[in-house]
């Protein structure tokens, strides 16, 4: 390998490291801050973490060489962010930490800006780094649970927060989301490698990630995985492909892999005999939660033990709040109530309540086009990174109606990566050649 290629690889690795930290950095932040007790247990540590990520992404060709993002997504994204920032400055009637809110805006814009400087060819390295970072975060979650004296099997898996004022325990949705990311990344990569050991490693990573999602007991993540499977069967699976896959199962290599997996599974059951019972308990709890949600939302008591689900009732109350506002003061919804004026925990509804009809048009329009580009990508499978982002957006579809706020960086950091790499027509064109010699290249 020549020196120039080594230098290029180094830059791709640092770009990828910074992007992975921004894209899915919260599990690492909580592990370092709250489990290893390194750094202050405040948002200042989180700010330093993301600042380091942006520093890793800093290009050597600032303003000299730019790369075309998805301009449709970029226009809708910037439209909503401008409206939200205007309301943040001139229409805020709730108490919040200005340091955190302003930092969220600055980090989001800086991330989008630096991504436009990241070369297209980084996508192969980036996919591997995202997977390895997510797998490491899964391992840190297990370590955190094993060293947490208050955690027991049956409780939701999450890193316990230590900063003052934080919610009791941790946020299991962050653990579940990381599990989804690791699972999707491994599934995307497994078709790119032919080596038996690598494929076996990726296969166990998929099983491990699924176990993390189950341990976190996040209904939204489990539902998203089910919808992803349905999208796969609709857009990517076909009879001939399934026939080839079935034939490949009978190869000697796969037979050896199957025997190894069977042996390890038997060893696991012999050592942890109550594992099956624990899994049944998780499944029963999941079923009960689904029955509670159906009863809360629709009043249908399919199960005799169904009760009101507090989380689902919060969403029902949010929709009732929106309906009352629409009937009682529709003119208010024209411009919105203001930045974070109402907490509804339903991002799509909150975008119109807090930011008016234009805020809703930009936010909903942005997600609509993301859905369109995701479906196109699922049909053509142009490259692993775009395919991964397309499937990951399906997870966001569930979150948009069930969890979070429209300006959360947990939305916008992944959104930024989608703006840069999803729906880019030229990205895998055989005619595409990166021009590195011109003074200003926007390829």
From TrEMBL:
The keyword Membrane applies. It comes from the Bacteria. This is Uncharacterized protein. Signal peptide: none annotated. The chain crosses the membrane at residues 12-32, 44-64, 76-93, 99-118, 125-146, 174-190, 197-216, 222-243, 255-273, 352-373, 385-403. The keyword Signal does not apply. Coiled coil: none annotated. Keywords: Membrane, Transmembrane, Transmembrane helix.
């Amino acid at each position: 390998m020549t020196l120039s290629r080594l230098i290029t690889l180094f830059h791709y690795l640092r770009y990828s490291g910074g992007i992975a930290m921004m894209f899915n950095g919260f599990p690492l932040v909580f592990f370092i801050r709250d489990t290893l007790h390194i750094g202050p247990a405040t948002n200042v540590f989180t700010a330093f973490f993301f600042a380091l990520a942006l520093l890793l992404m800093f290009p050597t060709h600032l303003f000299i060489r730019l790369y075309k993002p998805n301009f449709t997504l970029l226009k809708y994204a910037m439209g909503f962010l401008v409206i939200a920032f205007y309301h943040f400055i001139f229409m805020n009637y709730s108490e919040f930490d200005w340091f955190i809110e302003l930092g969220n805006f600055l980090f989001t814009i800086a991330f989008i800006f630096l991504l436009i400087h990241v070369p297209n060819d980084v996508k192969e390295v980036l996919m591997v780094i995202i997977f390895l970072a997510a797998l490491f975060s899964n391992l840190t979650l297990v370590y955190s649970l094993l060293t947490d004296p208050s955690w027991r099997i049956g409780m939701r898996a999450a890193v316990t927060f230590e900063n003052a004022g934080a919610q009791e325990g941790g946020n299991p949705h962050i653990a579940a989301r990381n599990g989804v990311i690791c699972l999707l990344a491994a599934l995307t990569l497994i078709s790119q490698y032919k080596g038996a050991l690598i494929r076996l490693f990726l296969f166990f990573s998929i099983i491990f990630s699924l176990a993390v999602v189950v341990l976190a007991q996040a209904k939204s993540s489990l539902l998203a995985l089910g919808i992803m499977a349905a999208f796969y069967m609709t857009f990517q699976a076909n009879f001939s492909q399934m026939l080839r896959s079935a034939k490949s199962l009978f190869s000697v290599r796969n037979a050896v892999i199957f025997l190894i997996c069977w042996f390890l599974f038997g060893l696991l059951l012999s050592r942890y005999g109550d594992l099956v019972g624990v899994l049944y308990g998780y499944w029963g709890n999941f079923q009960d939660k689904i029955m509670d949600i159906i009863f809360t939302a629709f009043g249908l008591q399919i199960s005799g033990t169904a009760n009101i689900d507090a989380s689902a009732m919060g969403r029902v109350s949010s929709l009732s709040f929106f309906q009352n506002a629409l009937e009682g003061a529709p003119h208010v919804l024209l411009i919105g109530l203001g930045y974070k004026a109402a907490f509804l925990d339903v991002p799509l509804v909150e975008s119109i309540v807090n930011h008016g009809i234009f805020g809703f048009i930009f936010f909903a329009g942005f997600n609509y086009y993301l859905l369109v580009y995701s479906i196109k990508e699922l049909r053509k499978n142009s490259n692993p990174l775009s395919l991964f982002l397309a499937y990951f957006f399906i997870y966001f579809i569930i979150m948009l109606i069930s969890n979070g706020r429209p300006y959360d960086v947990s939305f916008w950091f992944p959104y930024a990566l989608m703006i840069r790499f999803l729906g880019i027509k030229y990205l895998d064109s055989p005619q595409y050649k990166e021009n590195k010699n011109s003074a200003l290249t926007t390829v």
